[in-house]
Design a protein that fits this description.
By secondary structure, the chain is an alpha/beta fold. The protein contains 8 helices and 12 strands. The strands form 3 sheets. The protein has a 6-stranded mixed beta sheet. It has a 4-stranded mixed beta sheet with strand order 7-8-9-12, with no helix packed on it. The chain has a two-stranded antiparallel sheet with strand order 10-11.
Length: about 230
């Protein structure tokens, strides 16, 4: 499976956020979409890698933060691409409430919506709601080109509905914002539930991934995380 990192700009010089484009036998799966201000940059990236509305099979959202969901509604509406995300983060996207199911910080919630321009045109309801509770299987959510090669794991901590993707053939791990590597590999600075995050990290260690792709920063080996 081929992986391309799409490093998308955040507004106001706040750095970058990663989206990932996975390709297998001419079919594509997009992991996260950046924030709305990076829409043009995302479109250029997709086009440059040969990804279009006919071969982009699914967008998988690792968690509901606006810098990861900002262009999902556009792809869903214009390209008719199905969106999948965990049920515990759905109302972040459908109601534009980044602090749904999280500890409340009202001023930060309002400010983040303004900064990331997550207005009503960016709200969306995912086509597939991931539960990972035994009643829903990954191979019913993921397109057939990827269903036997990707395992989905709930990794609460940064948010309750955070998920990771693990490619079983080449042992790549995509962890959203549970981990970051802006200065060094570590648990992300922003956590809703730190004990849950540490448990999620322990769960990921058992997978023994070859390489980890975070939501922010460069890829790294999981044994570099000292927690």
């Amino acid at each position: 499976m081929k992986t391309e990192t799409l490093q998308l700009l955040l507004p106001y010089g706040l750095g970058t956020v990663n989206a990932y484009l996975l390709e297998h036998r001419g079919a594509f799966l997009l992991v996260d979409t950046g924030c709305s201000s990076a829409e043009r940059q995302l479109r250029v990236y997709l086009e440059s890698h040969g990804c279009n509305k006919s071969n982009l099979k699914c967008v998988l959202i690792t968690h509901g933060d606006f810098d990861h969901t900002g262009n999902a509604a556009i792809l869903q509406r214009e390209w008719q691409v199905p969106i999948a995300m965990h049920r515990d983060d759905v109302e972040m996207a459908s109601k534009g409430d980044m602090f749904f199911n999280r500890k409340r910080m009202w001023c930060v919630g309002w400010l983040s919506r303004w900064m990331f321009d997550f207005n009503k045109s960016r709200f969306f309801m995912p086509n597939f709601i991931i539960t990972l509770d035994g009643t829903s299987e990954e191979n019913r959510i993921l397109p057939p080109e990827f269903s036997e090669k990707i395992k989905l794991i709930n990794i609460p901590g940064h948010s309750k509905g955070s998920i990771a993707l693990f490619t079983t053939d080449d042992e790549q791990l995509f962890c959203g914002d549970l981990l970051e590597n802006v200065k060094k590999p570590k648990l992300s600075d922003i956590m809703d539930d730190l004990p849950a995050a540490r448990q999620s990290l322990d769960c990921l260690r058992k997978l023994k991934p070859r390489i980890v792709y975070p939501g922010h920063g460069s890829p790294f080996e999981l044994n570099q995380v000292q927690e």
